[in-house]
Amino acid sequence: MAKKTKTNSTELVTIHDQKLSRAQGGELHQTAEDGFDVLTTSQGAPVADDQNTLRIGARGPALMEDFHFREKIFHFDHERIPERVVHARGYGAHGFFETYDSLAEYTRADIFQRAGEKTPVFVRFSTVAGNKGSADLARDVRGFAVKMYTKEGNWDLVGNNIPVFFIQDAIKFPDLIHAAKQEPDRAFPQAQTAHDNFWDFIGLTPESMHMVMWIMSDRTIPRSLRFMEGFGVHTFRFINAKDESTFVKFHWKPKLGLQSVAWNEAVKINGADPDYHRRDLWQAIQSGNFPEWELGVQLFDQEFADGFDFDILDPTKIIPEEVLPVRPIGRMVLDRMPDNFFAETEQVAFMTQNVPPGIGFSNDPLLQGRNFSYLDTQLKRLGGPNFTHLPINAPKCPFAHFQQDGHMAMRNPVGRVNYEPNSFGKGPRESPARGYRHFPAEESGQKVQLRPESFADHYSQARQFFISQTPPEQRHIVMALTFELSKVETLAIRERMVSHLLNIDETMATEVAHRLGMQSMPKPAPAAVPTRQDLEPSPALSIVERGPKRFEGRKLGVLVADGVDAKLLKGLTSAVTKEKGLVELIAPKVGGVTVSDGSHIDAHHMIDGGPSVLFDAVALLTSPAAIEDVLKEATARDFVADAFQHCKFIGYDVSALPLLEKAGIAQDLDEGVIALPGEDGLAAFVEELGKLRVWGREPSVKLSSASPPVA
Ligand code: HDE
Questions:
Q1: Which of 374, 387, 393 to mutate to test the pocket of ligand 1 (most atoms within 8 A of CB)?
Q2: Is the CB of 122 under 6 A from ligand 1?
Q3: Centroid of ligand 1 to alpha carbon of 20 (angstroms)
Q4: 233 lines ligand 1 (CB under 6 A)
Q5: 671: left (phi > 0), else alpha (psi -120 to 50), else beta?
Q6: What's the pLDDT tens digit per position in 626-651?
Q7: In the chain, what are the domains?
Q8: Does position 15 have pLDDT exceeding 90, yes or no?
């Protein structure tokens, strides 16, 4: 260093000097001379000094002439592009779609013509309300956007993990999103709907009530992106070679079943690991446990649409699977992470209007509005019309057109001819036979700004969703509504919401009012159409009913201490691994523990860094010698107490009993707190873990039984 401060000519600061100072810092020991590529400017000029700006004398002013410095800072200053207005926080992966059978009868889409056909895909999952740096476990709808690079053009199925939406007309989208995001004067809360503006807008928008039931359910706090469903939401069209149309709704179903976390758990995960969902997807794919979904379709014709209870163009309605079964038509496997997050996940441009021949739109007013918005938004975000030149957005099939120039044009037409028709016999031509043909739907009517009467029933499917949930899931909806409305400061907004809930389910509404401490019940909100009581429950709407049967893809957190029984630990690990689950070790020190056979084993987390909220189930493998030390760790107590209150399975060996006592649960042991069986019984224990949660425990730790009615 002394050598550097004495230098008064920049020419003297040589690579040799860099090498010295880096080596002293203990970081890099090699330079370009040692075999690395030579660092260059973006113009390709080799760089000699990347540590010091050009200046007059070592302590003098900097020189404009230092083009390397200026280029480097200029580029850095422009690294950010506008984040997405909605769905800013996202995570993507590559994979493929495999078609099960030919669907030529319904659609001419090339992707559905041949059984076994594999199509490359890129998927981006996202939250909606939070900004780019927000936490993964926000209570929020998840985006589920799939770009399929078919042989006849890109097909973007830009869906969500919830099959309905808040609003019926795209013109209300800016209002919805303004109300949901941070309030503009105070710029909080971030990534939360628990505030006045959101519930004010919602309370004044009864069409959102069905969606409200979904967002207050555990669907909005998924355990993993791998355990969520996806939905195209709108009614689309399949169009076959004879130009015949069949209506279609798209569903993605995760192979590993559905799973969500508890709200209290979500809050703690956000602190312990704000990237919980990213890390989970990354780890699964990097370890070869490729997540998989089945694509299913509900196919129906005009006659079914005319006879159905609701308007199939209304995006606040579903067609229950029990009424119209979902037919599996293919599977999607995600098997590769992007090489670079920005280049791919950030710059990917999904657009609902990206459809290949054979797939068309319905008149769903939300879909029609989206078809405008997505192209427009890419221009702003990606800065010009040539975003299809980016590899992540470019089709993987041959393409040819006369679009040219604009910012960052990388592929302009070659040669003299850049128009059509031309008499030089050059360039691509339209093809009535192969080209995209819009379905020639007959339309007529007056120009109006009118909501159809067939969209007027806002409560019946909300009620159907609620009564389709299992008791723990209904409790969670009540708890979520209570939590969210408790954060609303304006009493009239809370009351208005309860008045809507009364039209959905009176017991639920009363329970929420009671928990909010409301002094009196409001009147039910005026309803354009009375709530139908005859819609049957649809078990397909329950997460618990659609849960996994096995522990596969889940994680067991094992709290270990010095002297842990070697055989038990080994047996437990192999039983979990056999079930295709993962084991992570949590120890007082991340450096690991000495096992009973004298060997040493590394831990994945120290106790403070590996709280039980990060795991699907836990085991406590301490030892008589080490238990006293473990008891001194306050976070070890939280580890157990949280696992218990989150209704998780807890396996323990007897040495850990004092820990159960310290966590205050020794008297409450139930069928989910299990003394670990000998090595032979471990497989059965792990099978039990496949149930994931002991929901029967919940009323005693969370929610007292039914409340007295509010006057
Ligand atoms: Fe979006 N939405 N949206 N949306 N949306 C965007 O496009 C919009 C809606 C969805 O991972 C934006 O590229 C309007 C429903 C996903 O990159 C924007 C309306 C559904 C993603 C936009 C809706 C979605 C977006 C912002 C009301 C589920 C993220 C950035 C009519 C079916 C895609 C962008 C990704 C993103 C507009 C409603 C899903 C502004 C106007 C309904 C998954 O164009």
A1: 374
A2: no
A3: 52
A4: yes
A5: alpha
A6: 999 999 999 999 999 999 999 999 99
A7: 74-186+222-389 (2.40.180.10), 555-701 (3.40.50.880)
A8: no
